[in-house]
Amino acid sequence: MSEDILQDDFSKQSIPHFLIIGAQKCGTTSLYNYLIQHPQIIPALSKEVHFFDIYFEKGMDWYRNQFPSLESKRWITGEASPYYLFHPHAPKRIHQFIPKIKLIVLLRNPVDRAYSHYHHQVRMGTEPLSFNEAIKKEESRLKPERIEILKNENYHSPIYQNCSYLARGRYVEQLKNWMNFFSMEQFLIIRSEDFYSNPTLIFHRVLDFLGVQMLELKQYTKHNFGDYPKLNSQFRNELLTYFEPYNRELYDYLGVDFGWDK
């Protein structure tokens, strides 16, 4: 079946108008929950559909059924699967079926993101190692899994998804992969720290990007956050040093300094 036929067929159905593609532990759950309070934004059956990373074998009919039937052209729908940004096959797959999609990306200081991600996996019962040990073993854990994912597109690796603490924070590598398929105009890239400090301003930026009416929420409740000990300052500085060249490349690539030097 040709790509044009697939796209025409899919366009007859309710399709996502936007995707929040990541990054994990950067505010995606909070943002999605704010968006679906808007009367013009109708939610998917679940926030994280994970079709283009984990469930691609289920096929497009299954994906269509994750979204509501829209009775008005004023309504839009979307989902938020933060593994999409990191998954090597997701951008190609998404471009094949919804090439005009609007893409929202939240990026957080990669040290804070990694530490939050680690504690999330500990709470989920999937990470038995200490943070230091997990960081030391990350490359040996991920390398064979990535090789298998690239070799077999239908291979799903919980290790690659769950234990990628440093790799997911090398944002520039991921964005370059995405921008091989999509134009810069299709992205809204948000600094998570700005979202946390001024959710109203960022929420309105997102509404403007999506082309829906402005809305003021009564409150901006944080979702999917947890309490955990503060990261050791020496180890934090080591991680800041590790990420510095990747952050600098990101700033140069996007033309924006995110200020993640502390």
Features:
262 residues, Rossmann fold, 5-stranded parallel β-sheet, 11 helices, Sulfotransferase domain-containing protein, transferase
Radius of gyration, in angstroms, nearest whole number: 18 Å
**Topology as a string of helices (H) and strands (E):** HEHEHEHEHHHHEHHH
Can you tell me the residue ranges where pLDDT is under 50 for at least 5 consecutive residues? Answer: 1-13
Look at the structure and give the mean pLDDT: 93
InterPro entries: NST/OST, P-loop_NTPase, Sulfotransferase_dom
Protein name: Sulfotransferase domain-containing protein
Organism: Metabacillus bambusae
Domain Sulfotransferase: 16-227
Give the structure's gist in a few sentences:
The chain is α/β, with parallel strands linked by helices. Helix content is 45%, strand content 9%. The relative contact order is 0.17.
Provide a descriptive summary of the structure in words.
It contains eleven helices and five strands. It has one domain: 3-Layer(aba) Sandwich (Rossmann fold). Strand 2, helix 3 and strand 3 (76-80) form a beta-alpha-beta unit. It is globular, with a radius of gyration of 18 Å. A five-stranded parallel sheet has the order 2-3-1-4-5. It is α/β, with parallel strands linked by helices. The longest helix is centred in the last third of the chain and has 22 residues, at 233-254.
